[in-house]
Design brief:
18% strand; 28% helix; 4-stranded mixed β-sheet; alpha+beta; ABC transporter substrate-binding protein; 6-stranded mixed β-sheet
């Protein structure tokens, strides 16, 4: 995600109603929430339907509306939801899932093996043009379905009502982990095709919450507790998500929390120290080291960042420690690897040699080898409204001071930023971040760095998350080898080799900061508020005091 998972996708200029919302009553069967309404601000999602839910806003909503085979605990372990069991064959190229019986969608339709087949097929179908379809690319028949030569997913079949058989095109002993992504959600028959707008805007799911009316674009999304949920029911009665102006969304979240409008908020970077001093003593300051990374994506295919030498020059020019201390006031730490430390079995620090310490001499040496000359222009893109302006400006100044390049900052609302990143002609570098969709190293390497992660359409538009278009056949081969390796320790060694190749030797992307997240939370009214594995509030588990 992004890139997609942690970035903010937005639509144009938006006017936001800042009026506080009162907590109303509930006619639910279980008023465990005592009529409580949990309120937060987001920016306009790309999609809240699993067919294309991809960034933090969209997946936050989709995960409340739908539940699949697995979820992920904060520590990265799988949490079985509708999967009663998951078994690979000896070769690792076929999985059998037993699905929990007698659960249903909020419209009463049964959640069975066919519902999962329906959902996965809907995401992958060519007509859906889904940006998250690539998560299915290991399933047999993906190419035919996604390419439009078939309307069936040949690798999926049902044995009875509650046994789902999945045949893969190649062995993958971690396939079960991937099913934690919302793309793998079941959907009811009424979902129809991927472009069914009525369902896109008011998805009917099987999760702990359901829609209250339709998505009011650029205004709000309202969720209410699903009292027919087949697992542990939520305590909150309602969740109100106000859609904020993308130009200053984080600032509006912070102001909204201070005014009592929101129960959960991010903060602009400059306000973090003051917010901590004020709210930490009150128990309303939340800190979490999460399973993600911030990085800069160089566009590898053309332009000034085409060579590894150019990419290393930029990386060596950045003083991560200085920015962490100055701009972030010590609240963030430099990243020297693409994988996060939470992936304990695979993580190795200092994989990225150029990330460990600023080296002006090496930066200039690599720039000379790459043909980068003082005065050359380097485009640096980022999404506005999410608090990135200060550190992006600091990085740009360091690059200018060390290499003499002219850095052109291009701040765009994220929907426009996405289109620019996907464009085949885009050059330079772009601010990115990624939070794990599921707990495997493959979730970082395959989407962000594999050749298949580019997934270009007929016009060359990158539909996948490898926006920088890094491609190395040897790296792709290592990923295939890792998936086919049953022993976890041996698989970790292969992933380490792959990361060394892509991040150190090729500098396919440039890691910048680890992802330590901070939130303000209304702990005076609510209990058990946490950041989940995906950096979202754990809405289905929040209690009321």
């Amino acid at each position: 995600m992004r890139g997609a998972k942690s970035a903010k996708w937005v639509v144009g200029a938006i006017v936001v109603a800042m009026a506080a919302t009162a907590c109303g009553g509930s006619d639910s069967k279980d008023s465990g929430g005592k009529g409580a309404v949990f309120r937060l601000g987001i920016t306009e999602p790309k999609s809240i339907d699993p067919v294309n839910a991809q960034e933090s806003e969209g997946t936050l909503v989709a995960r409340q509306l739908f539940v699949g085979l697995y979820d992920v605990n904060v520590d990265g372990t799988l949490n079985a939801k509708l999967a009663e069991s998951a078994k690979p064959n000896d070769a690792g190229d076929e999985w059998t899932f037993q699905i929990k019986k007698d659960t249903k969608f909020s419209n009463g339709e049964a959640v069975n093996a066919e519902a999962f087949i329906r959902g996965w097929t809907r995401v992958t179908a060519k007509a859906s043009a889904s940006d998250v379809a690539y998560h299915m690319n290991g399933i047999a028949g993906y190419k035919e379905l996604n390419g439009g030569s078939s309307d069936k997913f040949s690798g999926l079949s049902a044995e009875g009502d509650y046994t789902l058989k999945v045949k893969l095109s190649a062995p993958d002993f971690e396939f079960d982990k991937k099913t934690a992504h919302p793309a793998f959600s079941p959907v009811p028959k009424v979902a129809g095709a991927g472009d069914n707008k009525s369902f896109n805007d008011a998805p009917i799911g099987n999760g702990p919450f359901k829609m209250s009316g339709s998505w009011e674009h650029n205004k709000k999304i309202t969720l209410v507790r699903n009292d027919d949920y087949g697992l542990t029911k939520a305590k909150l009665d309602k969740v109100e998500l106000s859609i904020l102006n993308p130009a200053n969304g984080v600032t509006l979240e912070y102001k909204g929390f201070e005014s009592g409008q929101f129960d959960w908020a991010r903060m602009p970077v400059p306000q973090m120290p003051g917010a901590k001093a004020k709210y930490d003593p009150q128990g309303q300051w939340l800190k979490a080291d999460v399973s993600g990374v911030n990085y800069i994506s160089p566009f590898n295919e053309s332009g000034p960042m085409k060579s590894a030498d150019a990419r290393k020059a930029v990386s060596y020019a950045i003083d991560r420690a200085e920015i962490a201390k100055g701009v972030f006031q010590g609240l963030q730490e430099p990243a020297t690897a693409l994988l996060p430390p939470s992936f304990k079995d695979v993580y190795k620090a200092d994989v990225c040699t150029s990330c460990v310490k600023q080296d002006k001499g090496k930066a200039k040496e690599y720039a000379e080898k790459a043909g980068l000359k003082p005065g050359d222009t380097l485009d640096f893109g980022y999404n506005t409204g999410a608090g990135h302006e200060e550190w992006v400006q600091a990085v740009a100044k360091q690059i200018e001071d060390v290499l003499g390049l002219k850095v052109k900052l291009n701040g765009l609302p994220f929907k426009e930023a996405l289109a620019r990143q996907q464009d085949k002609g885009t050059i330079g570098i772009w601010r990115q971040a990624w939070t794990a969709d599921y707990p495997t190293a493959d979730n970082f390497f395959s989407p962000l760095l594999s050749t298949s992660g580019i997934n270009p359409d007929a016009n060359g538009k990158a539909l996948g998350d490898n926006r920088g278009r890094y491609s190395n056949p040897k790296f792709d081969e290592l990923l295939v080898k890792a998936r086919q390796t049953k022993d976890a320790a041996e698989r970790a060694k292969i992933y380490n080799e792959a990361e060394k190749l892509a991040i150190d030797e090729d500098q396919g992307v440039i890691p910048t900061w680890k992802r330590t997240q901070y939130r303000l939370v209304n702990s005076k009214k609510f209990s058990n508020i946490k950041l989940d594995f995906f950096e979202d509030p754990n809405l289905a588990e929040i209690g009321v005091k």
